[in-house]
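Researcher: Good morning. I'm working through a list of sequences from a screen, and I'd like to move beyond sequence-only analysis. For each chain I'm collecting a predicted structure so we can compare shapes side by side. This is the next one on the list. No need for commentary yet; just the structure.
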Amino acid sequence: MTKKLQNFLPVVILFLALLIFGSMFLNVLQNSNGEAIVTGVTATFGGETFQIGGFLDHKVNFSLLNLLAFSLPALISIIFVLSTINDKKTSMSKLIFGLLLTLTFSLSIVLFFQLPQNTTHVTTILGNEVTATFGGQDLAIGAILGYVFAILGSITSLIYSILQFER
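Model: Good morning. Structure tokens for this chain:
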């Protein structure tokens, strides 16, 4: 039973990591009224959210921490699956990869929790720039799903690491 579980868990880990990456395309921040403010793509890569002539310009900045939250688990999981797909025995490298994935998913959990503070925007009013974060805003469905998938990925990766001690 544990051998089947060891062979199945990398697929589950990869699937959860890809779901985290996919949550980037949903709304990640909302105001207190529940209205969506920013998608994960905009919160990560930045972009102009709105502009009123030459009077008002509102841009979201690129965020490396948001990029890590959404994409690092997927990147590490793809490398993990490609390197261990044909290796059926337990090994030290699988244990290290499992622990690395656990840390990666855990980092993603922390970064999702801090997503409003990690997302900055610049508002230009008549040539005067004001830089701020979305610190007072709430997490929307994309960030919540990413958060849940990261928790599940962390638990699954930890279970996979523990299974590497069986002979």
